[in-house]
Amino acid sequence: MQTSGPNRDRSINLSGSFFGLLIWRHLDCSGCFSFSREALLRLDRPKERLFSSPVRLRPARRKHRIRLLFPDESALQYPKPEAFCNSIPTWEMASINIAAKYKISLKEPGIAGVLRMAEERFTFTPHDPRSDPKFDGPFRGVKAHKFSKDGSKQALLNIQLHEGGAYIFDFESFSERNVCRDFVGRVLAKLQSVAPAKVDKAVPNKTAPSVSGEQLSAMEMERRMKLLREDSELQKLHKQFVMTGILTESEFWATRKNLLDDAVHNLTKQRTGFKSSMLADIRPSIDGRSNKVHFNLTAEIIDQIFAEKPAVHRAFLEFVPNKMSAKDFWKKYCEADLLHKTKNVVAAAAEAAEDEELAMFLKRDDILANEVRQKIKRVDPTLDMEADQADDYLHLPGHGILHGGRKDTSDAENELSRRTLSQDLNRHAAVVLEGRTLDVESGDIMAVAEAHVMSKKGSSIETSDKSENQERQEKACRMTELEDLQGPRRLPYASLCIKDPRDYFDSQQANALNSLGDNGVGFTSIDNSLSLEESYTYLIKQISEAKVKGHIDIVEPDVALKVLDGLNNHLSSTKHHIVKNPLVSVLDRLPVAIKDELMDHWTLIQELLRHFWSSYPITTGYLYNKVLRIKEAMAQIYHKLQEIKESVHSDCRHLVFLLVQPMLQALDAAFAQYEADDQKRSAKGAKPNGFFKQG
Amino acid sequence: MTSVQTKLYSDDASLVVVLIDVNPYFWATAASGVGGGVNHSSATIPFAKFLNSMIAFLNSLTLLNQSNQVVLIATGINSCGYIYDSGTKGSEGSGKVMEVSSEILRRLEEFVDRDKKLGKLQGMAVGSNVSSLVSGSLSLALCYIQRVFRSGAIHPQPRILCLQASPDGPEQYVAIMNAIFSAQRSMVPIDSCVVGMQNSAFLQQASYITGGVYLKPPQLDGLFEYLASVFATDLQSRNFLHLPKPAGVDFRASCFCHKKTIDMGYVCSVCLSIFCKHHKKCSTCGSEFNHVPQNPNSASNLKS
Predict the structure, then answer these.
(1) How far is A237 from A543, CA to CA, in rounded Å?
(2) From the list A512, A530, A571, which residue is nearest B32 (CB)?
(3) Residue B60: exposed, middle, or buried by beta-carbon count in 10 A (0-12, 13-18, 19+)?
(4) Model ipTM over 0.90
(5) Which ranges form a coiled coil (chain B) (predicted)?
(6) How far apart are CA B107 and CA B83, in angstroms?
(7) How far from the centroid of its chain's Cα atoms is residue A305's Cα?
(8) Would you state the pLDDT for residue A538?
(9) Quick one: what percent of chain B has pLDDT higher than 70?
(10) Nearest CB to A513; choose among B47, B49, B129
(11) Is the pTM of this model over 0.80?
(12) How many CB atoms lie within 10 A of CB A300?
């Protein structure tokens, strides 16, 4: 597989990352252009191919030229960035970020910052956050734009406003300025073509939401499509309401923001971890002719080396900028590794004696050794080591894994290179499990090394020895305790804060009793003429009567028959709709068609009601129209429900009635609210904000 | 002490805890009602007949299986108490039917006496505390079942049968619901047989939640038949039988502030306490509620 060196190319994988938004850093000037993915797809390539595999946008060095490389190795080439920008259809305008200087007048030096141009507005953010002229202006306020000639002294762009005044920007090169200039030109052209059309529209209420709905970015659209595809119920609702015009697109999605947010969230979360293959596969490639050995190190491998061998990392931090160059460092490392691999112990020892830096790599990794010691402390003291003694796979050498460690552990006296396979395996597994906390995308080895330092600091703070030791002891106690000597362990739970338990259990009762007496709720059926005394006497009398009577007349044949009949009738009458499981809902007793229909109506009603109630209080004409639309839709469903209620077969009429009733009630409540509001409105006439009731 | 492993799990040994309602008001009033009109005979039942049916039922339960155990708990208006436990004399033979019967009645007499004295001692306002302490007897039953779970050689299939006569006491709502939930947690079904005038919402919920049977017999003079044909079945055989099911369950709750049974109310978002009207502060957990925002439109309406 081809691996790329850290600095060789800065191509960015288009698919997936940044939700399809490509940000490409221009190599020669420090600005960056961003194009939406959709824009790239609109170039002149078939969609599917672009979608399915990554596209590389590779800037050629030192030239203002953009090349798009497609998976089939064909390429599109644009001689200038402007040409690329112009090839994007104007309706799909992307935003541009370009470094520029903002000048209040021509003579001033200007303030350096980033000019960002998007479809509707342009913003300027100075590099120095303290400096003042940070502004944000809509293109609508722009009257015209002027620019200096190519090849003149300065690359200037002058944006003039309707209210007078102008913004002057100074660019580093003409090509950058031209990109901006063309952008402004396109936007202005577009605005001018739209502006008169807008005036013609008589009812701005209706068009406004739909326009804003269409101004969504392509990826937003795509996300919505995806959600609809995944959730058929949602799709059904969407079809019912949005397609028929009861709700607008934006209204429909406004209540489902969380769904959209989730989708965004999921996209960014995943990060690739370390490879699960072992490090040992930095295989030297040896060409037969010379005596040279080549190692191929990539940023990723270096990252992994740092993670797995903290001593190398430490050495790197110590030596590299001051004592030797990065290249020398890795050369040394590879030499050591080679010695290690060839198991040339004597040579290794000799080399180590000569070169202390080299010895560094051959020595045992003391950081690791420390960590291992700590880990052993943390091992569960009750671990049964004998349990896997019979599995003697440990004796098999190598397991077919390429491994640079020594296989014969016989010469234990040799301090150098005493790494065993299991040690390496364990270390590797630990690193992989720990996961990666940083991205190696940057490709800068120093940055990678620094990042490792940061991540280690973070983790080492947590492992304070003291608490660990205590935890370990507690664990040991727990494992060795005799269960029957201990009381039952309490589960940890957060107890409910009850202000005063007595109040909760007792005094509330007394309180209630008083009010009971007042209301006369409770024993209304009981005649209070009987005193307590009499009642008790009656009880005692009855008990003694029971003693005397015995069980003579307990079973009377005719009563027994009546009871049996009654029970049987009751059972057979309920048997029809009571299925074995008592928890089966009423719905399952209905025919499937009716059930589905009812469920559909119910989801529709829920959606409508949600929109209906969220529109109150009605403050704008837009909300008024919306309520009107929804009310009509609800009235339609109401009629449908009535029809269902009447048309259904008599078997399940009662059940359907039970189900439909709450729906009708909910709708009735909404209608009542509407009427009440309507009356209030008509009584009042004009609304304070100048809105007049229509019709 | 027997450890759990050696316990014998048996699916046909039942432990039935029967709770009987000994509410003097109810029984006396019902009796006077009977005296008033002959037609009421199927709607109410004299206490003596109720007792006899119940005792016969207990005896038949012990006859069903040698290892069945029956516990009787009385629910008074001032106290609750154990009346009878068939397990305590298991070794010397469960005794003759008459002996059992007379023992139950004797202990019941003692209980009624004690209950009466307790009422006098406490000097409660006469006529105020009129509902039976179902929550107390449910708790006693659950405690007893837990004790059996933890001791003894056999792990029986427990269930609770609640014979209730008097109407629900809404002031016990929280306590009863807590008992119901603990029964549900320990998988003890609560059967309920209501011999009173009205359905009991509490017991409907109890049986529904714990998976027991709820029945309000229409023919009270055939109480024994109902008990024998519906409530005598053990949990194992219930899988194969059609037992009567109530058409609907009354899920209404009592509010915590006035103990009224309510259809709609306010619920504390922190501790889920129920109130019948809006409070500024939750009386249970002390959380303060935000004030309900006044609709500005309606406010202006009031002025104009």
Answers:
(1) 67
(2) A530
(3) middle
(4) no
(5) none
(6) 6
(7) 31
(8) 85
(9) 84
(10) B129
(11) no
(12) 17
Q: Is residue B128 a contact partner of residue B78, using CB atoms and an 8 Å limit?
A: no
How much is the pLDDT for A518?
41
The pair of structure tokens assigned to A559 is 């009563």
Domain ranges of chain A: 95-193, 228-268, 279-384+417-455, 586-680
Q: How far apart are CA A123 and CA A129, in angstroms?
A: 14
Task: Copy the structure tokens of residue B303.
Answer: 């002025």
Amino acid identity of residue B274, one-letter, is I
Task: List helix spans (H) across A153-282.
Answer: 174-200, 204-214, 218-230, 232-238, 249-254, 257-269
- What are A72-120's pLDDT values in tens digits? 445 555 555 455 544 444 334 456 677 777 777 766 777 778 777 776 7
- In chain B, what residues touch A521 (CB-CB under 8 Å)? 170, 260
Q: How far is CA A20 from CA A25, A356, A391, in A?
A: 16, 50, 51
Query: Residue B192 pLDDT > 50, yes or no?
Result: yes
Pick the residue from chain A with its C-alpha nearest to B222. Answer: A559
What confidence tens digit (pLDDT) does each residue in B201-219 have? 889 889 988 989 999 888 8
Give A95-193's CATH code, choosing from 2.60.130.10, 1.10.1740.10, 2.30.42.10, 2.30.29.30: 2.30.29.30
Beta bridge partners of B84: B72
Give chain B positions within 8 Å (CB) of A528.
127
Q: Please name the amino acid found at residue B265.
A: G
Closest-CA distance of chain A to residue B24, Å: 5
Detail the DSSP E strand segments found in chain B: 8-21, 69-75, 80-85, 154-164, 190-194, 214-215, 253-254, 261-262, 266-267, 274-275
The C-alpha of B8 sits at a distance from chain A's nearest C-alpha, in angstroms, of 20
Backbone angles phi, psi at B290, to 5 degrees: -70, 150
| CATH node for B2-240 | 3.40.50.410
Q: CB within 8 A of A428, min separation 6: which ones?
A: A278, A279, A308
Q: Which pair of structure tokens corresponds to residue A47? A: 């969609």
Identity (one letter) of the amino acid at A111?
I
Question: CA angle, corner A571, sides to A566 and A576, nearest 5?
Answer: 140
Q: Which residue bears the tokens 């850290």?
A: A6
Is residue B37's pLDDT more than 70?
Answer: no
Nearest-CA distance B91 → chain A (Å)? 26
Helices (H), A381-507: 421-434, 445-462, 465-480, 501-502
Question: What is the C-alpha to C-alpha distance for residues A421 and A427, in angstroms, rounded to an integer?
Answer: 10
Q: Is B16 exposed, middle or buried (0-12, 13-18, 19+ CB in 10 A)?
A: buried
- Going by their DSSP bridges, the two strands A32-36 and B214-215 should be labelled as unpaired
pLDDT for position A470: 76
d(CA A278, CA A280): 5
Instruction: Provide the shortest C-alpha distance from residue A575 to chain B (in Å).
Output: 8
Query: What ranges do the domains of chain B cover?
Result: 2-240, 252-304
Query: Measured between CB atoms, which of A516, A560, A567 is closest to B171?
Result: A516
**And the tokens for A331?**
């050369």
Q: Residue B175 corresponds to which tokens in the numbers above?
A: 């306590």
Give the nearest chain B residue to A550 (CA atoms): B52
Whether B56 contacts A551, CB under 8 Å: yes
- A531: exposed, middle or buried (C-beta count within 10 Å: 0-12, 13-18, 19+)? middle
How many C-beta neighbours within 10 Å does residue A59 have? 19
Burial status of residue B224 (CB atoms within 10 A of its CB: 0-12, 13-18, 19 or more): buried
Encode pLDDT of A265-317 as tens digits.
Answer: 655 555 666 666 665 555 666 656 666 677 777 777 777 777 777 777 878 88
Residue A287: predicted pLDDT: 58
Q: Are B211 and B159 in contact (CB under 8 A)?
A: no
